[in-house]
Amino acid sequence: MDKYVIEGGRRLTGTVTVQSAKNSVLPLLAASILTGDEVVLRAVPAITDVVSMTEILRGLGADVRFDGDDLRIDSSGAEGYAVPASLSRELRSSVFMLGALLSRFRRASCAYPGGCDIGLRPIDLHLAALRRLGVEIEEREGRILCSAEKLRGAEVVLDFPSVGATENILLAAVCAEGTTTVCGAAKEPEICDLARFLNEMGAKVRGAGSDVIAIEGVPRLHGAKFTPMKDRIEAGTFLLAAAICGGEIETEGVRGETLGLLLHKLRENGCKIHAKNDKIRLQSSGKLRCNRRVETMPYPGFPTDLQAQETALNAGGEGVTLIVENLFETRFKYVPELMKMGADIEVRGRSALVRGRRLHGASVTCGDLRGGAALVLAALGAEGVSEVCDLSHIDRGYADFEGKLVRLGASLRRVRI
Ligand code: UD1
Question: Taking CB atoms and a 6 Å cutoff, what residues make up the pocket around ligand 1?
Answer without folding.
Answer: 23, 26, 92-93, 119-126, 160, 162-165, 186, 190, 304-305, 327-328
